Amino acid sequence: MTNPTPVQELVEKIIANVEKVILGKRQAIEQTIIALLCEGHLLIEDVPGLGKTMLARSIARSIGCTFSRIQFTPDMLPSDVTGVSVYNQKTQEFEFRPGPIFAQITLADEINRATPKTQAALLEAMEERQVTVDGVTYPMADPFLVLATQNPIEYEGTFPLPEAQVDRFIMRIHLGYPARKHEVAILESQREHHPIQDLEQVVSAEELKAAQAAVKTVYMHDQIKEYIVALTTATREHPDVYLGASPRGSLALFKTARAYAALQGRDFVLPDDVKALAPVTLAHRLIISPSARIKNVAPETVVQEVLTSVPVPGTRVANQR
Q: Is residue 1 in a domain?
């Protein structure tokens, strides 16, 4: 058995720590860390009470990052997210008071409850990692992750995220209900107090940045790059799809596949890495046609059909370096 790589060691430390709070959801924890390693943002779509907030807080505590939670509501203003300039009578100058978006890990809770104008306040921060207020640009913290949640069931009083905003999330994941044994363990773990109160930092921000740099060195063969583009192209040509994945979808799959390979202890990407990440990186970017929507065709189903129909590159890819 080979020794674990530095990226593997870092990820295992975080996972072991977070699993003290989030039980039985290793895959979701891994996917959250993959988004962090890729310097991307994550959208969690699930019903209330499944631990979305706890997942974000646990990740932040494990890495020693600053954390903020924004509860989105219809009456929230963009300045409530980005911050505002306040006039100081002593200095007779305007001072910028940064908003909650300036934390290293920001939980945007129920993001679809805010108006489109407030949702748009996140766009510049997510894409360009900066915020402009009153003509002055302020850089975001490093590392920086927006972890947004939305309820897929209750749509009354919500504003669906525009496609431009959804496209900026590198992945969309679902937590799902815990298994019965894990739910029993959750009851036992919170008998006296919440386990997150005992959670300690296990990784420094500098170690995370080093891991992010290591992920960028993971090798990907040209055939696998062509495979990624073939997958995204197939979503655009699928008969049930009105609008397929954009080049940003190809880039998301490219980045996450390299991070996934690093998690497996490899410095090269296999086609299986791409196939493992395709559903969570591409499905939320697809707009299903009205006729297919009537038949309840899901974007995830389309991605699975694409994975089945697009030929996988040859098995010699890993050795042709």
A: no
Q: What is the pLDDT of residues 169-193, one digit of tens each?
A: 999 998 888 899 988 998 888 888 8
CB 201 within 8 A of CB 64: yes
Give the list of residues 6+ apart from residue 151 with CB closer than 8 angstroms, or none: 45, 46, 47, 48, 110, 112, 158
The answer to pTM > 0.85 is yes
The 8 Å CB, 24+ separation contacts for 136-141 are: 136/96, 138/83, 138/96, 138/98, 138/102, 140/101, 140/102, 141/66, 141/102, 141/103, 141/104
Counting the structural domains of the chain, the total is 2
Residues 243-264 have a mean pLDDT of 94
Per-residue pLDDT, averaged over 92-115, amounts to 88
What confidence score (pLDDT) does residue 12 get?
A: 93
CA 313 vs. chain centroid, Å, equals 27
Do 259 and 119 sit in the same domain of this protein?
no
Query: Does one domain contain both 171 and 288?
Result: no
Helix, strand, coil content of the chain in percent (nearest 5): 50, 15, 35
Do residues 42 and 32 touch, judged by C-beta distance below 8 A? yes
State mean pLDDT over 150-174: 81
Parent domain of 54: 6-211
Exposed / middle / buried, residue 14 (Cβ in 10 Å: 0-12, 13-18, 19+): buried
